[in-house]
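Subject: Protein record for review, amino acid sequence with backbone structure tokens
Concerning: The relation between a protein's sequence and the shape of its backbone.
How to read it: Take the token row as a discrete description of the fold.
Enclosed: The protein record, placed directly beneath this head.
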Amino acid sequence: VDADYIGDPTQSIGIYAFDEVSEINKIAIPAKAVPAIDVALIAYADMRKDLIAVVRTPVGVNSAGILDYRNGTGTYTHQPHDSWRAIMWTGGNVINHPVTGETIEIPEIGDVLGLMSARDNNFAEWFAVAGPERGRVRNSLGVAYNLGSAARQTEADNVDVNGVNAVIEHPSFGVTLWGNSTLQRANTLLIHANIAELMIYLTRELRPIIETELFNPNDPQTWKAIHRKV
């Protein structure tokens, strides 16, 4: 049930099992698209301030369903998500089942996380993961709900302006990650996912440097020492 995934900080279970794990910069529960779990993941990322929550919509929903899930409207009653430490994806992935060979629809989030990790390793966190250079999904038969078609351009724009990124079937590039937004609602640079990930990178890299001077006098000599180390 949802509570098993969310967990309890006093028992260090669920999400909170990662409380003492510092070597992560993203957190996700790929198997679940549940508002209560998303809210908990985003709150956890905002509390820690050193990682990004990656969430998704249910597989196969149309643009109206995407926006309802994102904003807590329609059949959903949660408050609209509003955090630059959260990134939401949609679209779904169509594949052949590796055992039965049956054509099935699965969440896109596994591919998203894999491509984000490859981007981190081969480029840097502040490069956008979307587009043909870093965001192509290999061995996919298509997407469950394709916002990349010409007929759905208005829908795609509406989803994008609400901060949801899509896996699309691009006419030239095939199945590709397409979007670079966070779930922040205020119109600042932090609505861009690569900027948000840069801020997480800076937070993680600067903290141990600053802590070496934490208990020294707050004076120009200390400022200069921190500046030199940075």
Remarks:
- Residues 43 and 225 are 34 Å apart (CA to CA).
- The chain has a mean pLDDT of 96.
